[in-house]
Each structure stands twice: as C-alpha cells, then as structure tokens.
Amino acid sequence: MQYFSNAGGAVVVRRMIETIRAHKDYLGEIDGRIGDGDHGINMSKGFTLAGERIGPADGFSSSIRILSQVLLLEIGGSMGPLYGSFFKAFFKLSKDTEKITAPLFLAMLESGTAVVKELGGAEVGDKTLVDTLTPAIAAFKEALANDRSFQDALVACVKAAAAGKDSTKEMLAKIGRSARLGERSRGVLDAGAVSSFLILDAMAQQISEIMQSD
Amino acid sequence: MQYFSNAGGAVVVRRMIETIRAHKDYLGEIDGRIGDGDHGINMSKGFTLAGERIGPADGFSSSIRILSQVLLLEIGGSMGPLYGSFFKAFFKLSKDTEKITAPLFLAMLESGTAVVKELGGAEVGDKTLVDTLTPAIAAFKEALANDRSFQDALVACVKAAAAGKDSTKEMLAKIGRSARLGERSRGVLDAGAVSSFLILDAMAQQISEIMQSD
Amino acid sequence: MQRIINNPDNLVDEMVAGFSLAHSDLIAPTANPRVLKYKAAPVPGKVGVVTGGGSGHKPAFIGYLGRNMLDAVAVGEIFSSPTAKSFYDAIKAADAGRGVAVLYGNYSGDNMNVKMARGEADDDGIVVKTVVANDDVASAPVTERHKRRGVAGEVLMWKVGGAKAALGGSLDEVIAVAQKAIDQTRSVGIGLTPCTIPAVGKPNFTIAPGTMEVGIGHHGEPGIRVEALKSADEMAKLCLDLILPDLPFAGGDEVVVLVSGLGATPVSELYVFYRKVAEILGAKNIRVVRPYVGNYFTSLEMTGVTLTLMKLDAELKALIELPADAVAFKQF
Amino acid sequence: MQRIINNPDNLVDEMVAGFSLAHSDLIAPTANPRVLKYKAAPVPGKVGVVTGGGSGHKPAFIGYLGRNMLDAVAVGEIFSSPTAKSFYDAIKAADAGRGVAVLYGNYSGDNMNVKMARGEADDDGIVVKTVVANDDVASAPVTERHKRRGVAGEVLMWKVGGAKAALGGSLDEVIAVAQKAIDQTRSVGIGLTPCTIPAVGKPNFTIAPGTMEVGIGHHGEPGIRVEALKSADEMAKLCLDLILPDLPFAGGDEVVVLVSGLGATPVSELYVFYRKVAEILGAKNIRVVRPYVGNYFTSLEMTGVTLTLMKLDAELKALIELPADAVAFKQF
Ligand SMILES: Nc1ncnc2c1ncn2[C@@H]1O[C@H](COP(=O)(O)OP(=O)(O)O)[C@@H](O)[C@H]1O
Ligand SMILES: Nc1ncnc2c1ncn2[C@@H]1O[C@H](COP(=O)(O)OP(=O)(O)O)[C@@H](O)[C@H]1O
Ligand SMILES: [Mg+2]
Ligand SMILES: [Mg+2]
Ligand SMILES: [Mg+2]
Ligand SMILES: [Mg+2]
C-alpha cells in the first residue's frame, strides 16, 4: 500500500508554501477583478511566516499545524479562518500516525472541507474554494473505491480540482466580497478556488515525489 | 486738442471687459505656471459681473466706477483690491470732466499706479503688473512732453507696456505667490503684467476709435 | 504610488503605533499589537462594546474608541478582517463581567473571525452577543438584507450601542438597541476614483474618468451600476432615491444624516452634497435632527461619498444625543 | 475631474450653505453670504477674533469658528483671498466693543484686503489689530521671515488667540500672545500629487510620480526642491531637519505637534508619519505635550503632509490646553 512518511512530510507543506509565494501576484490579480485584490498578499504573508517557523525537526503534521496556527492567529481575512481550519483538520487526523495513506488523506480532505463549508456557509456553485475542493475529494474517493493507488487518486484529484476551479469562471458569485456583483462576477475565476487548486496540486506533486510503498 | 467724451466712454470699459473675458484661459495658464492658476477666473468673473451692471446711461467714469466697486467688494484675491483701487483712481479724477484729454488720462494712470504700488508694495523688477504700468506711463508722459498727440502717446504707451510685460519673463518673482520660487520663476511671464498689458491695450484701441478733436 | 509609508507590510503596525502615541489621553495599547482599547476599559459595571475590521477606513474603526463609544477594537490588515485571535483579545479587553457586544460589519471574513473568537470567549465564560451591520442598500435587494454589507451606518450603530452600554444597559438591551439602530439605517455610496492597497501597488479596479460607480463598496467592490458622472445635486437625489424607499423613510420622520467622504474628496464638496440632501429631505418633511458631515468611514484615497440615514424613535434619539468622546467623534 | 460639485462658480456659496445647515448648533450665517460667525458672536465683553482666506483648505477656515476659537470668518473663492468687504463684515460681526484681532496668513491678497477692511473699520471706530502668520520655513530664509507664508500653524495661532480672548484678554494681550504663538511656530509641507481648482478644470502644476515636492505651498506653489519620493520615516526626518534648527527647538523644550494631511492622503499614513516624528523628538528630549494628527488644513485633493511644531512656554501651554468647541476642533 502506498503512503508517505509523516516524519519526512514537511516537504509537502514546504511545497505548498513555495507555490503560494510564487503565485502571489497572480492571486492578487484574480481577486482584484471582482474582489479587493488582497488574496495574494494575505495568502503569501501567512504561508511565508509559516515557512520561516517550520524547523528541521518538523514532520508533515507539525508543519501543517504551524501553517494552520499562523493562518488562524495571525492572518485574519477570510482565508485565515478558512484555510486555518482546513489545515487544522489535517493536523488533527494525522498527528498520531507515521504512515499517511490514501484513506487517511481522504479523511483529512473531507474533514477539512467540511469545516470550511460549515464556517463559511458556502456550497458548490457559490464561486468559492468549495468548488475546487468538493469535486477534488469526490474524484479522490472514487479512485479509491475503484481500487486505484494513492498516486492515481492524487492525479484524479488534481484533475478534478482543476476542472472545479475552472467551473467557477462562469459562476455568479454568491458569497464573499463579490457576492453581489451579479452578472459582473461572471467570466472571472474565483481567487480562493484558484489558490485551493494550487495547494492541492502542490501537495499531490510533492507527495508523489516522496511516495513509498509497503 | 484730442480727447474722448466721458459720456460716450463706456465703450472703453466694455472693451477691457471683452478683452479680459477673451483671455480668461490664457491668463489662468500663465498664472498656473508659477502661481495658483486662478488669475483668469478671478479677472473674468469681476469684469463679467461689471459688464452686466453697466447700463446704457453710463459713461466712462460711472462704468469704471462699477468695475472698480465689483473688484473691490466682490472679487477679493490680489486683483480685487489692486485693480479695484487702480480703477477707482480713474473714476475719481474723471468724474467731473466731460472731455478726457491726454493730461487727464496721464494723471489717472499715474494715480492708479501709485495706489497699486502703495497697496501691494511692489516696485519695478518684482515681476508684477507694476512692471507693465510703470514704463507704460513713462512712455505716455514722454510723448506728451515731446508735444505728441493723445493718439501717439497711446501708441507709445502700449508699446512700452508690451515691452514691460515681456520684461517680466526673465525676472525673478519678488512678490505674491510666486515670490519664493527663486530661479524657478524665471522664463515665465507674470500673469498680472499680462492682464495689465491687455487692459492698457484695450483702452488705447477703444480710445483711438472714439477719439475727437477740438 | 504617491504615499507616505515605509514598508507596506508594516503599514498597519506603524499606523497603530502612531495612533497610540498621538492619542494616549484616550487610547491604550494592549498586549496584542492588533488590539487597541479605550483607556478606561474594561469600564467597571459596563457591558463591553467591541468592533473590528480591516484597516484603510480611518477614522474607522479605532477612531471610535472612547468614552460612551467603543471599548476595544480588533485591527486587521488593509481591507482584511482582523484575526479571530484579535477579536478574542478585544473581547477580553472590553469585558467587565457584564458581557460584550460585538457590533461589526457584514463581511465574510469578519463573520468567520468573530464566530471563532466568540467560541473562544464562550470557553472563558464571557457572554458575547453580536449585531451585524448591513446598512448598504446597494449590496443586495431588501428581501435579502442579511446579505448586505455594513458601511458608514456602523458609526451610528456604535454610537447608539456605546451610549446604551454607558447608561448601564444590560447586554441584551445593548444588543437590542444596536440591532434596532442598524435596522433603521440605510446607506449608499458613490465612487469616483479607485484606491490602491499599498502592498498591491496599483488600483485593483478602475472608474473611468467621466463616470461614477453607484453603490460602490468600501473596498472598491463594484457598485450596482456605472453611470455618467453627475452633478452634486443629482448625486444627492440619486442616493436618496435609493435610500428613502428602502426603509422606507416618510414625511414626519426624524432622522440622523451622515455624509462621509471616501477619503480623497475635499470636505467642501461633502457640504455641497449635504446642502442638496437637506433641501430634498426638507421638501419631504423629513426632519434632520443631527447631521454629521466629514470623513467618518473612508476607503484609503478613494474619491466619492456615502450617504447614511437613520430613522429615529425616542430611544435612538436620546442615545444619539448622549455626549461621546472618541478621537473621531466628539460630541458634548 | 472626478468631483462632487455643481457649477464650479457656485461651489463656495453652496459649500457655505451646506456648512451652515449642517452646523447650525455652532455657526450662524450673516447678512454677507461670504461671512460666517460663531453663533454667540459678538460675545459680550470679549475681544473679537477673526480670520479669513481662500476656500479649498477645509476645515480651515470656517471649521475653527466656535467657542474659545474664532468669532467670524471671511470666505474667499477657492485659493483666493476674501474681499475687503467680507473681511470688514467679519470684523463687524465679531466686534463686541473691545476691539477685533484679525489673525490671518501672509498672502499678498489677504494682506491687501485686510488692510482695506481695517481702513473701513477704523472709520467706524472699531479698533482692529492684526497678526500675520508666517510659519512656513520653506517659503523664505529665516532672515526674511516677514516674507514667509502662513500655513497650518495658523490653527495653533487661532487656538491661542481665541483662548486668550475667551479668558478676557484685552486686544493688545490677544495680539501679543497670538504673535508669540506664531513666532514660536514652524511648519513645512511635502506635496505628493497636485490638486485641481474646479473652475480651472486641470491641475495647474504637476508632481511627477516617484518624486515629491519639499516645501510645497498650500495652493500648490512650488516647493524649495523636488526629490525622489522617500519613505514616511525619511519624510519625517527631512521635515524636522528643516524645522528644528529654524527656531531653533532644543532638548528640554515642550512642544505642540500638528500633522495635517493636504487632503487626499489617507489618515492612516499621517499616523505612520507621526510615529517617526515622535520617535525623533523623543530621542532629542523634546517633549510633545499635545499632538494633533488629522486633516486640519488641506489643499483640496492634494496628497501630502505638513508638519508644524510650536514651542511652548507656560502661557502658551495653558492657552493650548483650554477647552474649545469648533466644528473641526473639539477639545474638552
Ligand atoms: N464564506 C466563505 N466561504 C468560503 N469561501 C469564501 C467565503 N468568503 C470568501 N471566500 C473565499 O475567499 C476568497 C477571497 O479571499 P481573500 O481575498 O483573501 O479575502 P477577502 O475576501 O477578505 O479579501 C474568495 O475568492 C472565496 O473563494
Ligand atoms: N503685492 C502685489 N503687488 C502687485 N501685484 C501683485 C501683488 N501680489 C500679486 N500681484 C499680482 O497678482 C498676480 C496674481 O493674481 P491672481 O492670480 O489673480 O491672485 P492670487 O495671487 O491671489 O492667486 C500676479 O501675477 C502679480 O502680478
Ligand atoms: Mg480579497
Ligand atoms: Mg493666482
Ligand atoms: Mg480583503
Ligand atoms: Mg489665487
């Protein structure tokens, strides 16, 4: 069965951090079209801070906890509580486990997304990160149900995440700052949908690189 | 001896008004380079108001009194008191005289300019309307001393006024808003010097047109 | 970007530091650099009144800390909700044992962060109740008022809630009257030029010269429509046409009017605008009991104006009239 | 031009009308539409305190009408001195028989119009004395102080003069202390973007992006030099380097600091600037007794800041500390 090592998994978190930092301006630009343009700044600030605090002794769980705490305690905005709670679920479910397998990863995704939906009140179709996360989880789950490998499930997951993210383009925003733009919110991707795609993609790529089997 | 009729002299004031109105934007532009850009507005507003109040029964003296009062009472700025007092001198000296001759016109110019200098404290070389008025008066006076006609004296006066106005271009401003620009005030005409040239020129042209002899 | 800043990342911290230094007669810092409090808070025996929000709306939010107004404020990044921790710390800084009213604006970040802060405060046994301002008529139809944003009407909500708390009201009473205040309040804004978040470095939206955006949000969220730029008088009429039928306000009503600039509009122009507002209300026999005109709730250097009306009853009127002493709201 | 105006020619009248409507608790109109007065003026037994100037500097000048401040103000067109008649009418509106102090700024139009107004008042037997503010260090060398412009330091001169009059001072005492106030006051401004007189329709000067104009005047008069745009901290240092040696201010001094925005600069940035000013003064052992930070004296929608310092003695300190109630200056 495929897994990745919790002890060696800090790189997964680091990979997310790099990706968000690299896309700071892009995320700001997308948010700027129908929001207030600060999504890149908010995200990059939190992820950078977390990056500075993750030490050589940290594994996946403790690294993602650091990220979660920075977001929750020091970032604010919408993304602080949403992503903070999202990653907190990853920490909670993985903290006592050394081998992170596909079913555990699925559970983390599901739990994190449930908290995001509960806290923010967003459903699929509202033009938020939920539109990326929900189909991504479904694809991952389906792959597992079809006895595909962790690796394959990640590929399916990212593919669905990309489609989910793209689906926000033609949606009418129903939540957040752009919620009342009506028709004017169409034709533009949602910033949170994009950042959550980037996060899933970065995780999947890095997990693939450190994937082990037993 | 040449003269113009006080009773028929409202046209002289009207001609000034037209000229100032026609040069509103130009005066603003010049003032804008080293001042605050409102000279055209200030002047045009006062002259326009006066134009509306001058009636068919008004002659030169009563018309110029209306102009003087509007400037003094309703315009403010620097130009209100300076031109207001300037024209008040014209009214005072001409009010009891029907035939306005060259010596009387000279006396009005001299008295008006003296008030301007007293009130504003400007001397030749300070880059103000005094740089137009002073040589213009000297030229008018010299023409009379040489037994030239009112008509000829006016031509000499306007020529000297033009030269005086142009002389402000290379001056360092020493008074008013641009006074402390130092070198930066060089290379630009002074707005008041230009407007006073326009006023003298308009008066001279109109007086020539209604000039009579006895 | 022609701004008076150092590193944009430090802007909020330096602004808070400067504010604390300048107003130490009224304001005190707390252990959390993103929470400021009224010097006398927690005021013994008084319900605490708290708010918070993104920075860039000076004098909101910290300018309303003071006597008979707010006890503590959570400070966010420019246009970004404060952290849950800051809201939580603000609640603690304001709590004198009679509970804390968090009176804030309807933005998803603020909703979430207040919710999480409230959860923490619950664990400490601090009773927290909230009122969510949603006075911006342009941000959703009246049938979906819960979706509307909170804008300059928040100032009046704080005034009323702060006054009720100062007069000894219980938490439930403070909450009830703050809720009534915002329910009776309607606002709308017009944007004329955009603003730039310093860390972003360029405006994230545009308003074409010669046009105006009606119903613009306080963070540059696009308005309900873009129109050709109108005269001040027409803008006043247009704003009232959106506000008056919404509550509705009617002849015989007594109102508070608040005209706030969005930051860069010369205050003279706000008075030109107010003149017409007063004239129209007068013609409709709506009596302005108290007008406020100035920069009460801004959006960095955006140009434009917001108009807010609150319909008064005897209770609201008395609470509005109570003296207050905050940096940006001195009434005696 | 993205402005909230009607016909630009009516801007000042409409602004005055809106202001009178909004602040009828404190302000009263007079027969001259270009003169506003403190409602209680002329205050029996008190020396009248008057000022006036061009419009476009909101809240100056009319925002300082009120209790223990100004009694009457002459209102000019945008950036243009009021008429002599308006100054004269303001003097009459303020006169309670003990004479009138006209405390105004050093601009040639104002000098001339006040001079002519004073002539008229003399004929009526009203004793008028004047103090001409010249606090702007950038506008002439210290050896030619009489040529310097008056800028935001005027607010402190009005505060001091208004307080002295309110405390029963004679005309000579009011004049003496207002003169001392301005003699002890130094200001300098930095401009970052230009402004547009609405009737002109376009800026009459430019400040290239990435540069700043040090020593800019309140009407956009060019400064003493143009430099590359600096950080807020460097701007603060630069302003103090111009101001401190000019008086000079020295360790052990007690000062009032007034930081005013020029109109469009977000107030948050004024606090960032003030933070550094306070730090530098602290390091030099110059004690800030009272800081004022806000839009006290603006230039339409210009972006930038002015810094003003006044050195206190016991008399000035007491007068600064006296409560005051004006639209733009409430101190209790
Ligand atoms: N209530 C919510 N539930 C889920 N996602 C939300 C919610 N509110 C906002 N978002 C997401 O947040 C993104 C914007 O984040 P960001 O720009 O960082 O914060 P802010 O909206 O406070 O400026 C949106 O693109 C959207 O995906
Ligand atoms: N003290 C003075 N004496 C003579 N002329 C002056 C004086 N002050 C200003 N001026 C003239 O006034 C002109 C500017 O007028 P204007 O722009 O209407 O007024 P302001 O300077 O108040 O904006 C200058 O070009 C100069 O010629
Ligand atoms: Mg955003
Ligand atoms: Mg001018
Ligand atoms: Mg934001
Ligand atoms: Mg002017």
Describe this structure in words.
The complex is a heterotetramer, with two copies of chain A (214 residues) and two copies of chain C (332 residues). Chain A is mainly α. Chain A has a single domain (2-213), classed as Serine Threonine Protein Phosphatase 5, Tetratricopeptide repeat (Alpha Horseshoe), CATH 1.25.40. Chain A has helices spanning 10-22, 24-34, 39-53, 60-75, 79-94, 102-120, 130-145, 150-167, 191-210; strands at residues 2-5, 99-101, 212-213. With 332 residues, chain C is of the alpha/beta class. Chain C folds into two domains: 8-184, Rossmann fold (3-Layer(aba) Sandwich); 185-321, Hypothetical Protein Tm841, Chain: A,domain 3, CATH 3.30.1180.20. In chain C, helix 2 (84-94) packs across helix 3 (108-123), helix 4 packs antiparallel against helix 5 (171-183) and helix 6 (232-243) crosses helix 7. Chains in contact: A-C, B-D, C-D. Chains C and D meet through helix 1, helix 6, helix 7, strand 12 and strand 13 of C and helix 1, helix 6, helix 7, strand 12 and strand 13 of D.
Which features would summarize this protein structure in a list?
heterotetramer, A: 214 residues, mainly alpha, Serine Threonine Protein Phosphatase 5, Tetratricopeptide repeat, 9 helices, 3 strands, globular, C: 332 residues, alpha/beta, 2 domains, six-stranded mixed β-sheet, binds adenosine-5'-diphosphate, binds magnesium ion
